[in-house]
Design a protein that fits this description.
The protein contains 15 helices and 24 strands. By secondary structure, it is an alpha+beta fold. The chain folds into five domains: 106 residues, PAS domain (Beta-Lactamase, 2-Layer Sandwich), CATH 3.30.450.20; 121 residues, 2-Layer Sandwich (Beta-Lactamase); 103 residues, PAS domain (Beta-Lactamase, 2-Layer Sandwich), CATH 3.30.450.20; 73 residues, Orthogonal Bundle (Helix Hairpins); 146 residues, 2-Layer Sandwich (Heat Shock Protein 90), CATH 3.30.565.10. The strands form five sheets. Strands 6, 7, 8, 9, 10, 11 and 12 form a seven-stranded antiparallel β-sheet that branches. Strands 2-1-5-4-3 form a five-stranded antiparallel β-sheet, sandwiched between helices. The longest helix has 51 residues. It catalyses: ATP + protein L-histidine = ADP + protein N-phospho-L-histidine. This is histidine kinase.
């Protein structure tokens, strides 16, 4: 290399060019007499000719006085003046440093340095630091440094114990710090501090602040290093009291949702399941260890049969502004569920993805109750109908014999003819018997309805029962031929004799009513594996098929003109059912009918 001489003029110019932004020489009147221009801003740039101009007049008005004072100070004292200035322009704000030196008795040399980039960086750092301090204050974050050898903290930033930002770093021993820590957390906190090799580890503990309020803290290590053979740990602590509270509330809420008596589930629009609670798992028999993220709603939950149905369901929810109320009739027999009331709604998750939540409430008991109410209403209406029918029917049935009794009583009182009196007396007796039968039927039906009917079983001979009935009906004339099929071998059973006679009498009277005089009526019994079966068979008019199921109901008559209350067969049915037996009829129109009564045998006591 050639010899370099700093005193060489060319070398001096090169050094000045490399080390100086802009330099200008001014006289006593602050007129620029020479300039080296390297900056480029609206005021100082190579396109502006400063020579011959007052340098003060070129500057913005806001800084003229400051620069003028700097020049006067250096001119009077001969000392170097160094200061930073703002340089506002229409484009933006610039910043510069001005260094003023006395060059000779007539001139000052001014060195202009552009510090805009550096100033902007400082402003950004200052703003970032201010924001960091404010964030730390709002987030209640404090910095700490712990010297493991001295067992001493240096705290900066926000102090959760004091409840404010620390103006200066606070030096505090571990012993003093632990006085604010919950006793149960002393040992775990010390283990956390003195354990090596766990940077970025976190630890939660509790402290009591200056107001005596318990606070939850989370401390995080972020650096550890040796300084003068002592291990230093740096970290920060944040108050997480609200977070713990929110977390506890969220855990409680999730527990409520998980154990709710309703089926609750959530899924994405594509059908992927996100959440199912316990009741939903039970209804759909979903194992607890099943990975929901791999399950689709239409493959896992029973009430969505296909993917097409699921997408149609989504459309219905979207068409109702994301909230749909509906009823599902899908049954879950294992949970005794026959119907559910459902609500489906859309709620975006934390990343804005739409999640469909559905709640299904079991309304089976409500439907059963409504069905029971409907049946009760229908029963009440039927009872009212039967009551009206009964009153209408009894009005006619009672008036007829009463009118005959009253009318023929007056005639008998005015008749001296003995033969007429006997004839009219028979009519009175017949109508009296009919009236008594009507009253008896009504009382029987009333007793059966209130459960007051009593049954007294005794050992009786069925052969004698038929013989007794044969004698009772033997004096009747102008009726169908009554044939009592009495077996040679007697059968003794333990049964209520009076009720057997009542049942057979009702059935025989009913057969007589609907069998012409040239017909036949057969009465008898047989033994079966279930007990004793009585029968009354006639060759009468028969019963239409559409009335076979109704014939044992109250007030039902084959013909509305028939005499009677329509209670006879209903009474028979009630008596038989209370004796734990059954009664039925087989019939064909114009062929006749056969009524059967089957009663279980009551064991005969051996005493």
């Amino acid at each position: 290399m050639g010899n370099m001489n700093l005193r060489d003029l060319q070398v001096i110019e090169k050094v000045l060019d490399m080390t100086c932004d802009t330099m200008f020489l001014v006289n006593r009147e602050n007129i620029c007499v020479d300039v080296i221009m390297k900056t480029d801003n609206p005021i100082f740039n190579p396109r502006v000719n400063l020579i011959g101009k007052n340098i003060i007049s070129v500057l913005p008005e806001s800084i003229r006085l400051q620069v003028e004072k700097a020049l006067d100070y250096s001119r009077k004292t001969g000392e170097t003046y160094n200061a930073n200035y703002d340089l506002p322009t229409d484009e933006k704000m610039y910043y510069f440093k001005l260094i003023v030196n006395q060059f000779d008795e007539e001139h000052l040399i001014c060195q202009y340095r552009d510090i805009t980039q550096r100033s902007n960086m400082k402003n950004r750092l200052r703003s970032a630091l201010t924001a960091l301090i404010e964030v730390g204050k709002v987030a209640m974050i404090g910095l700490w440094s712990f010297d493991c050898s001295k067992e001493e903290f240096v705290l900066t930033g926000y102090s959760n114990i004091a409840g404010h930002n620390l103006e200066e770093p606070l030096q505090i021993s571990l012993e003093v710090f632990l006085r604010s820590v919950h006793p149960d957390d002393h040992r775990p906190l010390c283990d956390y501090l003195f354990k090596e090799g766990n940077e970025y580890s976190r630890f939660e503990f509790r402290v009591v602040n200056s107001k005596g309020v318990m606070q939850n803290m989370q401390s995080t290590k972020y650096r550890s290093y040796l300084e003068k053979n002592s291990l230093i740990i740096d970290g920060f602590s944040q108050n997480i009291t609200d977070l713990i509270k929110n977390r506890s509330e969220l855990e409680m809420l999730m527990k409520v949702v998980e154990q709710a008596p309703y089926s609750i589930h959530a899924n994405k629009l594509n059908g992927e399941l996100v959440f199912v609670n316990q009741e939903c798992r039970l209804q759909n028999q979903i194992p607890d260890d099943l990975d929901l993220s791999k399950c689709k709603i239409f493959d896992t939950l029973h009430f969505h049969g296909s993917e097409e149905e699921w997408h149609q369901h989504i459309k219905e929810i979207q068409q109702t502004n994301g909230f749909l109320r509906y009823r599902s009739t899908h049954a879950y027999p294992q949970r005794d569920i026959i119907s559910s009331e459902c609500i489906s709604f859309i709620i975006p998750n934390g990343i804005g993805e739409d999640i469909i939540w559905t709640m299904r409430r079991d309304i089976s008991d409500q439907l059963r109750y409504e069905e029971q109410l409907l049946k009760s209403k229908e029963a009440a209406e039927e009872s009212e109908r039967l009551k009206s029918l009964f009153i209408s029917n009894m009005n006619h049935e009672i008036r007829t014999p009463l009118s005959a009794i009253i009318g023929f009583s007056d005639i008998i009182a005015e008749t001296d003819d003995a033969e007429l009196r006997r004839s009219y007396g028979k009519i009175l007796s017949s109508n009296g018997v009919q009236l008594l039968r009507l009253v008896t039927d009504v009382l029987e039906m009333s007793n059966l309805g209130t459960g007051k009917m009593r049954f007294i079983p005794n050992l009786i001979s069925l052969k004698r029962v038929l013989q007794e009935l044969e004698l009772s009906f033997g004096n009747l004339t102008q009726i169908a031929a009554l044939v009592f099929e009495i077996p040679d071998e007697d059968v003794v059973v333990n049964v209520d004799r009076g009720r057997i006679l009542q049942l057979l009498t009702n059935l025989i009277n009913n057969a007589i009513k609907f069998t012409p005089e040239e017909g036949f009526i057969y009465v008898g019994f047989t033994q079966t594996t279930a007990g004793i079966r009585f029968y009354v068979k006639d060759t009468g008019i028969g019963i239409p098929s559409n009335k076979l199921e109704l014939i044992f109901d109250r007030f039902v008559k084959l013909n509305d003109t028939d005499r009677g209350t329509g209670l006879g067969l209903a009474i028979c049915k009630s008596i038989v059912e209370q004796m734990e037996g059954k009664i039925w009829v087989e019939s064909k129109v114009d062929k006749g009918s056969t009524f059967y009564i089957e009663l279980p045998l009551i064991p005969i006591s051996q005493e």
